[in-house]
């Protein structure tokens, strides 16, 4: 009987050392170990799994330069509507409000000019309407001085 008790203790002591609370009891000594800083830097034990957080994903947004226009103003819509009327495409009253009639007129204009017929205002359509970018050219100045030739 004594022999069976010793065998049981021999097998149960190592199992107690593997229990989750046993490690905390062993490390609770009054004097810290010399390698305590190294122990905290080590990875957690296999029984104490931790979940890793995924790093936050930064989404890139479109960067619009300061001072640039993202939506045409009412005056610009009115200019486009007037240009469509001059080109022979009726968007309705040029009131500066962009609606279905204006989109339809622009789509018809784009189709007639061989552009992609989307009904959306784009750079090529504005250029075809004569409303594209304007480049300031310096005025011609006389090179022969201030007097007139006689």
Can you describe this structure?
It is a single chain. The protein has a domain at 74-128. Helix content is 41%, strand content 0%. It is built from 6 helices and no strands. The longest helix has 17 residues, at 2-18.
Q: Layout of helices and strands, plus pairs?
A:
Elements: H1 2-18, H2 20-26, H3 36-41, H4 74-86, H5 100-112, H6 123-128
What's the mean pLDDT score? Answer: 74
- Give Rg in angstroms: 41 Å
Structural class: mainly alpha
Spans with pLDDT under 50 lasting ≥5 residues? none
Output the helix-strand order.
Answer: HHHHHH
Say how many strands there are.
0
- Strand residues, percent: under 5%
What is the straight-line distance between the termini? 141 Å
Structure annotation, total helices: 6
Helix content: 40-55%
Largest sheet: none
Q: Give the overall shape, derived from the CA principal axes.
A: rod-shaped
In short:
Helix content is 41%, strand content 0%. By secondary structure, it is mainly α.
